[in-house]
Recover the amino acids of this structure.
């Protein structure tokens, strides 16, 4: 198993690719909706595994501020996803909301990669980082199997940021 920073960074690029594909799909609202749903399923599983496995495991004085900010950014991403899920892809607000989701996801990934991941690489031993990646991967696969539409997981999580 790869270690957790490599594992999550790869997922960041994959989700960004999917979201940008949806943004670029200008002339086919139905296709755009399908692309958004696919991205939202992946993003939901990614966020859940960070909140349930990674963040609690690396919670420490040194990471507290970064994790708190990350959780607020997750909340914002979830709200945008839930808004988009309720919208007709032909609605005039669908495209701007989708663009904001893509931009915010990219910004959030950048912050994790610049602020959090270097700390993990320095402070968490390789074997523990490998164990965390395996645990997160198992959780994502389990949730993916349980739910036909993993994106729906975030529907009940838009009132406040998750606590870790
Ligand atoms: Fe995150
Ligand atoms: Fe992430």
């Amino acid at each position: 198993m790869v270690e957790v920073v490599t594992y999550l960074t790869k997922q960041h690029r994959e989700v960004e690719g999917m979201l940008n594909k949806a943004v670029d799909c200008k002339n086919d609202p139905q296709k755009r909706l399908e692309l958004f749903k696919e991205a939202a399923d992946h993003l939901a599983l990614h966020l859940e595994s960070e909140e349930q496995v990674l963040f609690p495991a690396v919670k420490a004085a040194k990471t507290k501020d970064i994790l708190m900010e990350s959780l607020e950014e997750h909340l914002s991403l979830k709200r945008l996803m839930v808004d988009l899920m309720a919208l007709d892809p032909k609605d005039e607000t669908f495209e701007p909301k989708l663009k904001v989701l893509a931009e915010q996801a990219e910004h959030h990934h950048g912050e994790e990669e610049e602020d959090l991941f270097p700390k993990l690489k320095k402070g968490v031993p390789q074997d523990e980082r490998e164990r965390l990646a395996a645990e997160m991967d198992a959780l994502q696969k389990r949730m993916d199997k349980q739910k036909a539409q993993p994106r729906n997981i975030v529907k009940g999580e838009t009132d406040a940021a998750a606590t870790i």
